[in-house]
Amino acid sequence: MTIPLDSVVGELYLVGGVPQPDPPHLAVLTPPRRAARDRREDTLFVFLDLGPGTPPALLVEMIRRLSNAYWRRAGSTTAALRHAIAQANAYLLEENLGLPPSTRRHGGITCAVLRGNSVFLAQSGPALALYARPGLVRRYEQGVLSPGPRDEAGIAGVTSYLTPTPDAELALGMSRGVAVHLHHIAVQPGDLLLLTGPTWVSGLPQGGLEDALTQGTVEAIVTYLSRLAGDAPFSALVVEARLPVEAEEEEAVREVTSYVAPDVPAPPSSPEEKVGEPPPRLPLPPSRIPSLPSPPWRIYLRRLADWGILGLGLLADGVRTLVTRTLPEPEAVPARPPRRRSEAEGNVLLMAGVAIAIPILVALLVVALYIQRSQTAYFQGLLEEARREMEVASSLTSDPETAREHWQAALGFLKEARQARPDDETVQRLYTEAQAALDLMEGTVRVQPALLWDYGVSRPYRLAVGPVQLFTLDPEAGEVVQHTLDATRANVVEKEAPIIAYRGQQVGEERIGALLDLVWMPAGGRRLQDALLILAEGNRLLEYNPTWGLKRLTLGQPPQPLVPRALGAFNGKLYILDGVSSQIWRYEPSTEGYGLPESYFVAPPPDLSQAVGMAIDGSIYVLLADGRIVKLFGGEPFPYQISGLEQPFVRPVAIALEGDKEEGAIYVADAGADRIVALSKQGAFIHQIRADGDAFAEITAMAVDGASRTLFLVARGRLFSFRLPPLPEG
Q: Terminus-to-terminus CA distance in the chain, angstroms?
């Protein structure tokens, strides 16, 4: 048995406090006549956030391409969402490549699909959405863009939204690879969904969106948000799921509600805004969903009110009966002095209290039982949906792409079930089974990192590993700390990490400035001892030996000032990658340090201006911000192509090597996808390493100890280590 579900949508688009009609960056879309069969019951909501001031024609075309890709894509809902967002990203990237950097647009997107009694939420780039039901507000937020100054009209400048902060999600239009974060929500009538974007909420007070969702109706939420935004630019899309209303009210409920002040005319459009037509805004038709296991909170309130009235009626009847039966008949006697309360009067008060308590206790018991049964039915429904998705995924042996989407959908249902009952053994077993199947398809190896240290704050740390020591540079604090490791590499010996170098420290006759980078230099060539090298500003080089302490070394000056992006060490030589000139300067060791550098390249160097890391094993591997790896050998670029990596790098931040020049592996830390990717020295994908929980969230630094096959990383200000999984033979 199914019942119709009505949806009410509210659109809000304010510029300078003035409501604007037909927002070009959001859409509410229903299936066209020739939609794929799997899409015919869907309603698609889109909020595209490229920052205020984006040309409307660009936004309209992106939504058009996204919607066309979605409606034509057969298969699972999540697969269609991934495909649609990838198409929109490809179009924006193509447009950006033809524009000067100062006018390129980047941002994020949130798509929501209402299908049956489920909402599938997909986000890419900096994005923000909130989901609310009685007693719960859940925030779905991806990386944010750095805020910038606003112009006189209160709109942030174009360049404010072009570059994400170091810990931000990779934005749309920056790379061909796009990371799509998927969520599944089991909806009930009365639930609310709010779509907006990080660039639109900077003018709101903290907690303002959450407060708005407590206002009840869509109209009240939109009105509240418009008052809250004031003169700041703001936009949002609010969706409410409702039970059916009476026939004469259906048309009013189905209309899309847009907040437009009747007495304030919209400003005239500029000539460029007339290019292209915005997508049509259609009223949402009623969808069909399975009968829900629990009613919305409004029905709870209505029933509580009915029970309260019933209780009051019972109370009145009880009191009237008790008074009639227990009080003596009135007598006409002269007035007499006050007397003590009779036993009959005491019984009246006692019975009145009992009459009040009984209906209240009954009502509370009924409510508790009803809620318990509803929660049980909701939990069992999630398990049934998960099992159904797992059965479908298991049967699709010849279609791994579609099978992957069904495994992901099963995990979405099971995550909801784990939140409802974290200790349920059945949920844990099914979750482990689904995760293992998905890991096998994606070449994922799961590890359990050991927590070595907690620095307390997330920063762009740098790591260097020696035979028994691990060194961490905090550039913002301007200090280097030393950790001594035990034989397992999973524990730190000291309870307090000693600081071995710091900004402003007196070394010889000079005070040291900002500390920029560090590298462990093994003995080799003309260098006779292992040591840690620390590069400081002003082309100053420090050497730290755990036995002899800290001293300054000479470092020859290159032809132009250095802007170091990475340090490397090989066979006693020091390598410094200069991000401005795209040069790699090679320094030969001397008795006092390192002399004048020589250019590594025998020909004009390739473009290394976007380098984020460098590793050397005889060949040099330079990791670029867009995920490409430039391999160099003998002073020239050497062919290197990554193959077999299904999900492109989202935000690579570090690179490390294991093994010799031909064997072993290259490890790339992808902070945007919470993973470590292992590649062969020839570029073939080996596997990706993930950890349960948030051990790999927001990776900022990585180092590998090849002797013990141990990888060290810093994520969210915490230092972890784990043994590397075995590499395939051959």
A: 58
